[in-house]
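Q: Please design a sequence for this.
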């Protein structure tokens, strides 16, 4: 039941991950914007069934303890994270695994499931979106200044990163994600959704302040057989 913490070199960067359990079903937990395995999935690492599952939580490059490098947001950052995530699991010798992705980690999981169908067993996403609308950009700009965040959300991230890195990376994320609004239909990963063949479960929080529910409905509509 112990949780191991380690780094492994993947695609030229040292990615940090935590691992627990000895079940035959491997699952990767993918955190959201600025998140790490520990900040976003502490309860899951502690409480998921260790007999059924082998649970891995990762810190994407530039997040959590996967620094250096510093986090940046080129136009393909979701595809980059998807490749890193899958290559990490392969480096850890998992032949097939499921993805549980939250927020940005949900977008990353959608792309990974579409691009690497032979490796992905099942998919669960929540708080994810496949496009960015002008309304979304307005919402994102509302969180640009981290000094306005609630203490509860801000505190663990300030402890993880220090104020400067946290504040600068949040601004860079807002700029990076807002760029998708300039694409046709604000596209992030719409074209990938029909390629997802694994069983998919989509969850959405009724009070999600960042992602309007229409995004979850769009993803459900475009992934065949999803629930």
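A: Design:
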């Amino acid at each position: 039941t112990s949780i191991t913490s380690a780094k492994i070199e993947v695609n030229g960067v040292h990615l940090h991950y935590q691992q627990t359990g000895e079940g035959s079903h491997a699952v990767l937990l993918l955190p959201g914007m600025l998140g790490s395995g520990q900040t976003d999935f502490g309860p899951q690492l502690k409480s998921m069934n260790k007999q059924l599952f082998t649970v891995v939580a990762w810190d994407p490059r530039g997040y959590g303890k996967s620094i250096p490098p510093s986090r940046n947001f080129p136009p393909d950052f979701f595809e980059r994270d998807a490749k890193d995530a899958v290559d990490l699991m392969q480096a850890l010798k998992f032949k097939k695994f499921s993805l549980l992705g939250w927020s940005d980690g949900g977008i990353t999981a959608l792309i990974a499931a579409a691009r690497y169908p032979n490796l992905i067993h099942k998919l669960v996403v929540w708080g994810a979106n496949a496009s960015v609308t002008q309304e979304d950009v307005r919402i994102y700009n509302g969180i640009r200044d981290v000094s306005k965040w609630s203490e509860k959300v801000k505190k663990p991230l300030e402890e993880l990163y220090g104020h400067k890195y946290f504040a600068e990376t949040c601004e860079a994320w807002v700029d990076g994600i807002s760029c998708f609004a300039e694409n046709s239909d604000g596209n992030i990963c719409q074209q990938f959704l029909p390629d997802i063949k694994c069983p998919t479960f989509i969850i959405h929080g009724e009070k999600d302040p960042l992602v309007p529910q229409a995004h979850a409905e769009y993803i459900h509509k475009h992934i065949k057989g999803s629930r």
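Q: Thanks. Anything notable?
A: The longest helix spans residues 163-178. The radius of gyration is 17 Å.
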